């Protein structure tokens, strides 16, 4: 009796020819083997499809969680940018108020003494304070004005750098979310293709499709 060739599909032309050449009882026996083998293959493929469905559910849940995390990070970065912008806005308002006060002060002193105009070598505000306040007080006020200018410049630079950093992190988070969404769609297509191949009896093809998409998407 010829043994069942595992490398030949159960209902291939070659296999049917081989079976028909056997005695009746041997033919019936081998056909029963083929039937049992087909039923076993159907059960195996059904179990395989169920496992694919389960893996797909797990992948959907994991990637949805990652996308949600990245969206939350984008919202947090945008909130940080607004808060930094508000803080810098307050500092700018304080500077503008001080400048307005110093302008009024200089206007009162200008008719009495020449204090000049703003330039790289002249500060009419400080000149006006020199004329109406003691030297020690002038030094204190001068230092306060210079300190405010330094803090404003430092705050402006830090704010600009922070905005650039937040914008870069926000763009990176958005690109990561977009990449994950695209990868999820690719896996969904691959799973559907693998299920069709598995249903058609091509378990090896289904496994190859899933293996290809896994090797592409698992890498960081």
Task: Please outline the major beta sheet.
Answer: none
Shape: rod-shaped
Order of helices and strands: HHHHH
Number of helices: 5
**Radius of gyration from the alpha-carbon trace, in angstroms:** 40 Å
Residues in helices, as a percent range: over 70%
Mean pLDDT value: 72
The low-confidence parts are 1-9
Judged by helices, strands and strand pairing, the structural class is: mainly alpha
Return the domain count. Answer: 1
Number of strands: 0
Q: Determine the strand fraction and express it as a percent band.
A: under 5%
What does this structure look like?
This protein has 220 residues and is mostly helical. The protein has one domain. Helices cover 83% and strands 0% of the residues. It is built from 5 helices and no strands.
Question: In terms of topology, how is this protein built?
Answer:
Layout: H1 13-20, H2 24-109, H3 124-132, H4 135-199, H5 203-217
Write a short abstract of this structure:
With 220 residues, the chain is mainly α. It has helices spanning 13-20, 24-109, 124-132, 135-199, 203-217. The chain is rod-shaped.
What brief labels describe this structure?
220 residues; mainly alpha
